Amino acid sequence: MDRVLPPTWRPSSEAELEAALNEGAFTETPKREAKQQLRGSKDQAKDMASFAIDGGLIVVGVREVKAEGRFELAPVEWVDQILETPARIAASSCDPPLQVSVEWLESELPGHGYLLIEVPASPLAPHMAGGAYYGRGDREKRRLPDTEVERLIRARDTSLDVVRTALREQVEKDPFPEGALAHLHVVALPSRRIPGMFKAWTAAEDARPLLFDLVRDGVSSRTRERAGTAARVSPVFGELVSGFRTAGGVGIASQLSTSSVVVLEERDLRFVVRERGEVSLYCGRAADRLEGRYLFFDGTLAFRVRAFLDLVASLSEDAGYGGSWDVGVAVTNTHGVSSWNGERGSSPGSEYDAERYEQVTRVPQLELEKPGSATDRLVGELLRSLGNASAHTDLLTDPE
């Protein structure tokens, strides 16, 4: 009886791949496909999008001999950018952008090898490519009917109800419910619940040094560099110095109320880590009233949300969690704000005509390494409504 490869099989060498082919164990399945060569960009995008629902592996460098019902080695030639191209296509030609990993297996034939394109099951599936949605049949991709697309999208959106509820609960507990400024609320929950996920943080006798080091080192240099001056709008992460405890968690704030100190709305910044896995950020100054105008710090919003995702990535690594995160953003008291142009001190965009902005999304672990697309899903709509999103492209994307 021929050996059967497990669905998650992945060769680690040419010899292992060849053995699977010779034994007849390598077959195309709903989770595995062979390609003799890399196809054009549009076809690659469709192939990768089709695996996004349940995950799968594309092996490039394997030829199908249909007349004999078998596969054989057909190593491809190494060329510049061969590893980067599939990932770039998945990120730019699939909607929402798709995260894939690409590995090269060397062949005994000099200058040749095999591409392993792994498409993890995406929490954002289904993904559109070429104007349509695709899934997998027994051996090849298939175009999804509208009814199946609607079902998948409805299931995806329903699964975000928990973080949406947590976000709204945080808004209800706003320390300045009658404040004069726009407030930023960000909440993240692990998509897969792990009891006591951050118990090490809450169990620490003094969590302030841990949180201080996290906010100091956890925001990537890439995020800070891309933000430029937007990262320096007060209150800044560097002002998070006062540790505190809260129900089920620990936090660090820019200021704490005491008998002699009154907390100011415009200086209030708080970051909280809860034992059950919830992470949150609050800022009391997402906009300000300057010279009779109500101006929104749109670049700083993009920076703060992207920096928050950096911190979530650091916490994930610390907890050994490799799953996705459900993230929500709300900005309150937004009616009448317009985009701030930091260089001219003027307002180039039209006024926002809603009292509140809210968005939730699921962020795969792989996307946390380059959180531009997730940042765009969370705040891009608001920035585009203000007419100044193009000024912050560096924070909303991660070009190769």
Characterise the protein shown here.
With 400 residues, the protein is an alpha+beta fold. The protein has two domains: 14-150, Schlafen, AAA domain (Methyltransferase, Cobalt-precorrin-4 Transmethylase, Domain 2, 2-Layer Sandwich); 161-396, no CATH class. Helices cover 30% and strands 25% of the residues. The strands form five sheets. Strands 13-14-15-16-12-19-21 form a seven-stranded antiparallel sheet, sandwiched between helices. α2 crosses α3, α8 runs antiparallel to α9 and α9 (298-319) packs antiparallel against α11 (372-386). The longest helix has 22 residues, at 298-319. 44% of the residues are buried. Residues 342-347 have low confidence and may be disordered.
The main sheet orders its strands as 13-14-15-16-12-19-21
Regions with little confidence, pLDDT below 50 for 5+ residues: 342-347
Structural class: alpha+beta
Shape: elongated
Number of strands: 21
Distance between the termini: 46 Å
* Helical percentage: 25-40%
Arithmetic mean pLDDT: 92
Largest pleated sheet: 7 strands, antiparallel
Please compute the radius of gyration using only Cα atoms.
24 Å
Portion in strands: 25-35%
Number of domains: 2
By DSSP (H or I, 4+ residues per run), the number of helices equals: 12
